[in-house]
Structure formats: C-alpha cells, structure tokens
Write a structure and sequence with these properties.
With 266 residues, the chain is an alpha/beta fold. The protein has eight helices and eight strands, in the order αβββαβααβαβαβαβα. It has an eight-stranded mixed sheet with strand order 1-2-4-3-5-6-7-8, sandwiched between helices.
Length: 266
C-alpha cells in the first residue's frame, strides 16, 4: 500500500525530463473547457493512419493521464506508446487522451473519499467526459457513438475510475481497459457497488502484475472478476484477466500490455 501511495505522488509531482517529442504525426491536441471541474483540459487525439483518406467512422477510446500516453516529452516516467503501437498494427480506433489534473488528479480519478488520502470527485470528472467531451468529439470527428464502440481505459487510479465509469454509465461505456486498478483506495465502496449492480454487460480487460507493491492487487482482481461473473454467464466471455509474472506498477507493464488488450477488446 505504501508503494502505491508513493507512486501516486510521483505521478502527480514527477518532473518531466528534457526529451524530444515522440508523438506520432497522427496525434493532435486541443483544449476544452471542463465546467464540471471548473477548469480546462488539454486533450490528445490519435487518429487512425487511414482517417484522412476515408469516410468511415471509428470506435473511440477515452483514456486518462493523457500526458503519459503518446509522447515521452510530456510523460513522467515513460509513455505508453499508444500511437506507435496502433500505427504498427493499423489500429482502427480514435484515442482521446485526457490531461490529468496535476495536484487534483487524485480527486478527479477517485469515486469516493478515502479517510486518509481524501479524493472523491470522480462523478464530476465522468460528467465532464460524458456531457462535455464526448459530445464535442462525436461532433468533431467521425465516430461510432454507440455503447459497444465507446471504451474507457486507464491504469492505477485511472483503472479504478474506468471501472467505476462502466458501473455509473453502462449506457455510454461498453468496453473498459482496467490496468492495475487501485481498488484499495475505495475498496469497500467499489465492491459494494459491484455487488449491488443487477446486470453488467460491459466488456472488461483486466491487467496487473504480481509484483506491483500492493499485496492485495491480484486478490482484488480475482474478487472483482468473481463478482462480475455472478452478474452474467462466464460463457459470454466478456471479461479477461491477465496477471503478468514479475509485472510492476509502472508504464512498462501498461505499455507492453496495451496491444494485446486492444486486440482483445476490439
């Protein structure tokens, strides 16, 4: 647990090293007002290589911690290489990377207040995505707007808020990438919410390492998987769990797991 908390603060206050931009030519950015959070957000947009030369519509992945997804220059401890990975496999998806809130990251990505660490403003963060960002994205780009083509994806606290988002907005998010979710932050509440959920149709890819520093990480994933399977038949094959031997709580684990998870989800 102590390791996980230390990582959260490094993520928030980490110093960006001087590096050249590694962003793909298929990546652009824009800034949008986030009235639900009383701030503005920088957004990274990845478009498929064939976007400009086609008229087709594409699924959309909304990802947290946008600074760390597509550019080493803006990342803290290494990027996910989302753009390079999708370029290499001709990924047919639009990725929307959402800037995290810096010192407010913990508040934005946690559904409930933690007695020791605070937080608990994820409802407003998700409202921003659903009520402001998604409508703008759907209006601006050629997107498939329905549930099965809309995905929420993140790691650590981003994994926690992604899973919570699927429970809160099942009509919006039909797929979830849930990497190393920090269920410990709101363990009691998130498991109670899942237990009370009557139906769960979301497709979920879980990933974590068995050496993340949080001794309960694997146990939490196993418990959540069990609860999900009480809401639907395992035969539907709508959830997958990948526990990486030796995997640690870092971008290396998430970067190396992204391609496999994407191919399974889409």
């Amino acid at each position: 647990m102590k390791f996980a908390v230390t990582f959260l603060y490094l993520f928030i206050f980490g110093i960006t090293t001087a590096q050249l931009s590694t962003g793909s030519k298929n990546v652009t950015t824009f800034t949008i007002e986030a009235p639900q959070l009383k701030t503005s957000k920088k957004i990274w947009v990845y478009l498929p290589k064939n976007y400009a030369n086609s008229t087709k519509k594409f699924p959309v992945i909304y990802m947290h911690d946008g600074q760390n997804l597509m550019d080493a220059k803006t990342s803290y401890v290494g990027e996910w290489n989302v753009d390079e990975t999708l370029d290499s496999i001709n990924g047919q998806v639009i990725v929307i990377g959402i800037e995290h809130g810096g010192e407010k990251r913990m508040e934005e990505l946690t559904p409930y207040r933690n007695e020791k660490y605070g937080g608990g403003n994820a409802d407003n963060y998700l409202k921003f995505i659903v009520e402001t960002l998604k409508p703008f994205v759907d209006k601006t780009y050629r997107t498939k707007t329905n549930t099965k083509n809309t995905c929420l994806w993140g790691s650590s606290l981003g994994g926690l808020v992604s899973f919570y988002g699927a429970l809160k907005y099942p009509e919006v998010f039909g797929k979830v990438g849930c990497f190393s979710p920090s269920f410990w932050f709101n363990r009691k509440e998130i498991f109670e919410l899942m237990d009370k959920t009557k139906s769960f149709k979301t497709k979920v890819y879980f990933l974590c390492g068995d050496n993340e520093g949080d001794p309960d990480m694997v146990q939490d994933l196993n418990k959540m998987e069990y609860l999900i399977n009480t809401k639907r038949c395992e035969c539907q094959m709508l959830n997958k769990k990948n526990i990486v031997k030796g995997g640690q709580h870092n971008e290396k684990l998430w970067r190396e797991g992204f391609k496999k998870a994407y191919l399974w989800l889409f």
